[in-house]
């Protein structure tokens, strides 16, 4: 007997057949079965990270907002640098206009760990290259 939702005046409304998953947490999409959590990183599985000589350019961000918004901006910058094969310059935490907070990236994050952990994903440098003529040209919003 197929399952029924309800019966009224002798008319049965049928439920559509639903294939039950073996597990609530089973991944139904086969395309993602090869994905691994970042915690299972293995350096031999990483693509080539550009050197400073073969980078597609530099990315510098001014992360603003609260700490969580800044964290998200930093994660996005790492992802964009990876996709564009660009070098990431250590992010600048924008000064809060109300509190006049002058906290720097290195005050909040362990810079050496940040660079070391991401070295197989993206090249990170501590500052704008010395050869760059005008630093003011970098500070545009999109």
Automatic annotation (TrEMBL):
InterPro entries given in the database record: GDP-Fuc_O-FucTrfase, GT106_glycosyltransferase
Keyword Coiled coil set for record: no
Molecular function as annotated in GO: glycosyltransferase activity
Pfam families xref list: O-FucT (PF10250)
Gene3D superfamilies (alphabetical): 3.40.50.11340
Keyword Glycosyltransferase found: yes
Coiled coil stretches, renumbered: none
Superkingdom per UniProt: Eukaryota
The entry's keywords: Carbohydrate metabolism, Fucose metabolism, Glycosyltransferase, Transferase
GO BP terms, alphabetized: fucose metabolic process
Family: Belongs to the glycosyltransferase GT106 family.
Protein's name in the database: O-fucosyltransferase family protein
Organism: Taxus chinensis (Chinese yew)
Lineage: Eukaryota, Viridiplantae, Streptophyta, Embryophyta, Tracheophyta
């Amino acid at each position: 007997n197929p399952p029924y939702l309800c019966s009224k005046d002798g008319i049965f409304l049928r439920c559509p057949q639903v294939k039950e998953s073996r597990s609530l947490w089973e991944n139904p999409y086969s395309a993602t079965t090869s994905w691994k959590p970042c915690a299972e990183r293995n350096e031999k599985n990483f693509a080539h990270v550009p050197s400073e000589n073969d980078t597609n350019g530099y990315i510098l961000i001014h992360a603003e907002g609260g700490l969580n918004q800044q964290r998200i901006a930093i994660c996005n910058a790492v992802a964009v640098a990876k996709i564009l094969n660009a070098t990431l310059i250590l992010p600048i935490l924008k000064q809060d206009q109300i509190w006049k907070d002058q906290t720097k990236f290195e005050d909040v994050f362990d810079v050496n760990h940040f660079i070391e952990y991401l070295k197989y994903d993206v090249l990170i440098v501590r500052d704008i290259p010395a050869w760059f003529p005008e630093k003011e040209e970098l500070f545009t919003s999109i």
